[in-house]
Write a structure and sequence with these properties.
By secondary structure, this protein is mainly alpha-helical. It contains 20 helices and no strands. It starts with 6 loop residues before the first helix and ends in a 7-residue tail after the last helix.
């Protein structure tokens, strides 16, 4: 027996899929947990790719003979610069164009450019693919949080934002071990694995996600402030990335920093005076969001040192293979998962400030432990392992409440707030990587000690910022 489907039913289904969904009731969207799964998957994919490539640079360099370390490093740098620069403009545009449309377009771009990167015949093609891949990631990450808020009732916002932020913490911690495993097959698998994941989430997102956008007639972001911010962030990250190679007093480095400062001043001026600046001054009216923005920059600088220094130390000083180094780092993301998955209940019980301060201090204590325990002779269990557990504690406790600070904003500013927080993290990560490269030119134990001193300072400074700027009520 054949079942006939009425044309009206098909038309209704298509109309429902294409029509913007109005704000859901206090009960939340009926498919909210399926929406959470899709948004968590795409956010994880986009954020993992920033960290997973770190351990693949040697293999990429061998695939393209005649390229030096400085040239190969642009596989990382291109992604970092573009991702940081595009985050906030993408978040603001998504509010007007449609968050679902922006996110799915970002997933499509990310998936396509991942395939191009996997098949790249030359380093130039790979770097260009990575830059476009970063655009896709910047379209995904803040927009995913912007779609979460309208799908859940307000009473569950702390829980779901904690879970979403925990996904980012897990992605950051899992990057090196996942990369180490994939590199044993071929570095191209780091990009190729995104293709089936991207296709699956694209289909699921098209079917499940609601559309959310600002009402028609809302002012578009001021184009001058958009351009100024793009220039400020891209020039700052470029100067930070190139500084160790060019020299911090080189005229090119100084010029880039000066140009970045001028563009940043123009961004601030438009924020204060423009009718609809790309970064609205109201975002920083609350101390909680301001504290999270500052602390994320400091914490991310230290955390970037963690992720790279541990992998590099075990490979270059202890002579571990990439696979062994990747597996050896695994306790950190495993510990991070345990805390990140309970981020919502932890915040409900202790507020946002206390877990974040505990996490930032744990990162500082990890570095302090390595300074006293790690030496030239390999001693993984007694020297490196305890610090990795503290790093897992740091990633799981600190990042979730810091990103959850976007929840202190009005729902219509959640996407932009998330973008600002992610931008702060990316700039901090770039600074951390640059400092590590500058401090470890010969990969000696003394160089790594200097980097771990910086990591200690970053963790302590982040904790101090959170305490100094904490709101009167932290829940």
């Amino acid at each position: 027996m054949t079942t006939q489907v009425a044309p009206q039913a098909v038309a209704t289904t298509v109309h429902d899929a294409l029509t913007p969904t109005p704000p859901v009731s206090e009960a939340g969207h009926p498919r909210r947990w399926s929406i959470m799964a899709v948004l968590g998957a795409v956010a994880f994919m986009a954020q993992l790719d920033f960290f997973v490539v770190n351990v693949a640079l040697d293999g990429i360099g061998r695939s393209f003979p005649g390229t030096g370390v400085a040239t190969v490093s642009w596989v990382l740098s291109a992604y970092a610069i573009v991702f940081a620069a595009v985050l906030v403009p993408a978040g603001r545009i998504a509010d007007h164009w449609g968050r679902k449309r922006m996110l799915l377009s970002g997933v499509a771009l990310f998936t396509l450019t991942s395939a191009v990167a996997a098949a790249a015949p030359s380093l130039g093609v790979l770097v260009a693919a990575r830059a476009l891949q970063a655009v896709g990631a910047a379209m995904i990450v803040p927009t995913s949080l912007g779609l979460l808020y309208p799908s859940f009732p307000k009473r569950q916002h702390t829980l779901v934002v904690g879970l979403w932020a925990g996904v980012g913490a897990i992605a950051a911690s899992a990057g090196p071990p996942v990369g180490g495993l994939l590199v044993t097959l071929d570095w191209r698998w780091i990009f190729l694995i995104n293709v089936p994941v991207g296709i699956a989430t694209l289909v699921a997102g098209a079917l499940l996600l609601p559309e959310v956008r600002r009402p028609k007639g809302a002012a578009l972001p001021d184009p001058v402030s958009v351009l100024a911010l793009l220039l400020a962030v891209s020039l700052l990250v470029l100067a930070t990335v190139q500084g160790p190679g060019w020299g911090w007093t080189d005229v090119r480095t100084v010029t880039l920093f000066a140009a970045a400062a001028l563009a940043a001043a123009a961004t601030v001026e438009r924020t204060l005076r423009a009718k609809a600046p790309v970064i609205e001054r109201q975002l920083f009216a609350g101390r909680q969001f301001t504290a999270a923005t500052v602390a994320l920059f400091l914490f991310s600088a230290g955390f970037a040192i963690v992720l790279l220094s541990t992998a590099l130390f075990m490979q270059e000083v202890w002579h571990f293979s990439p696979l062994r180094a990747g597996v050896s780092i695994a306790p950190a993301p495993l510990a991070s998962i345990a805390f990140a998955m309970n981020a919502g209940p932890i915040q409900s019980r202790f507020g946002r400030t206390a877990p974040a301060v505990t996490g930032t201090l744990a990162m500082a204590f990890a570095a302090a432990y390595w300074l006293t325990a790690v030496h030239t002779a390999p001693d993984y269990w007694g020297a490196m392992f305890p610090g990795l557990i503290l790093v897992g504690l740091a990633g799981g406790l600190a990042q979730a409440p810091l990103f959850a600070a976007a929840g202190s904003l009005a729902p219509d500013r959640a996407t932009t707030g998330s973008a600002v927080l992610n931008m702060s993290r990316q700039i901090g990560s770039a600074v951390g990587v640059a400092l590590l490269v500058a401090l470890t030119p010969q990969a000696t134990t003394a160089g790594f000690d200097h980097a771990w001193w910086v990591q200690t300072g970053a963790g302590l400074a982040a904790a101090a910022a959170l305490i100094a700027l904490r709101p009167g009520r932290t829940r």
